[in-house]
# Entry
Amino acid sequence: MKLFVTGGAGFIGSNFIFYLRKAHPDYQIVCLDSLTYAGNLMTLKDVLKDPSFRFVKIDIADRAAVFALFEEEKPDVVVNFAAESHVDRSIKNPEVFLQTNVLGTSVLMDACRAFGVSRFHQVSTDEVYGDLPLDRPDLFFTEKTPLHTSSPYSASKASADLLVMAYHRTYGLPVTISRCSNNYGPYQFPEKLIPLMIFNAVNGKPLPVYGDGKNVRDWLFVEDHCRAIDLILQKGKVGEVYNVGGHNEKSNLEVVQTIIDAVGKGDIRFVKDRAGHDRRYAIDPKKISDELGWLPETPFAKGIESTIRWYLANEDWMNDIFSGAYRTYYDKIFG
Ligand code: NAD
Ligand code: DAU
# Structure
């Protein structure tokens, strides 16, 4: 079995590679990543020496390069994590989100059609459903919830999802889609809430909480997400969408307070709200649970404790990002 994992130098993609190394040591993995600011090859340093692992620096929207790699490697399965993933950046500069998230996805699927794969899996997000009100805790996103996006990021991910389903219906491409809630865990780029707050708390910087801090996210430990994707690849039905989430809703203030308590210090600063800020996300994971037997295994208290411990024990990983040293690692390894 040969898998292409795109975006594998990012947060979830790298965790997925580590997960696969343990769960399926016989798989051959080719990681395709263009190493944007969010891609960190140092994260993958331990697997780079592995003979069944190959890293290729490539932009998924570069048609010629992608087709050449498919021709050379002939993958069985493609799992697409590669994306511009940060909402705040999409508000400042939407264009690159369309280029990578929409065009890049279509280039990958064109290559899948041309060379044939047994599965193209698109890693999507609960943000495609828009948001839910805070005063209706009875409401959840199901796979039937209409797409209703708020940010250029979520609009680009929803566009990609529509394209994926269109390639299935029009060309018969064997696709699946997973729509996951907020992930947390090791190796997340420190522009996102949890690693940023840990870094700032440790370094005595203010913790910037947007708006009133009451926005709610449904937090899922990254390894539980990786297990869900693996299960969808094994047992998921082609042409189907699966919601992945944890019934683990927390307000941003609750999350930040947990970090302050664990680090032992931290100074909250309320700052201007994010434009178009989604109020609440909440996934109903009934379908993946009933059909594939998936349930989140990591309670938030345990997952956040081990995550904070990981960042505190791996300050070098974070400092290399802030100093920019991580950007030179590719040249050091590949010349
Ligand atoms: P990330 O920003 O940490 O990593 C993205 C990776 O994609 C980076 O390594 C980057 O270099 C690479 N990349 C970006 N543009 C590329 C291009 N044109 N060609 C090749 N590689 C490119 O993102 P993440 O948080 O790991 O998210 C991974 C996927 O999961 C994304 O598709 C995201 O939409 C989705 N998702 C994320 C979350 C979350 O909580 N982080 C939740 C649900 C879904
Ligand atoms: O729901 C899944 C999505 O989760 C993924 O599709 C995205 O790729 C991922 O980035 C994440 O999006 P969010 O916008 O929810 O994550 P972020 O970490 O940026 O913010 C989480 C919440 O915290 C959100 O309500 C905004 C708030 N926030 C964020 C930052 C960075 C703050 O209050 N202060 C901050 O400094």
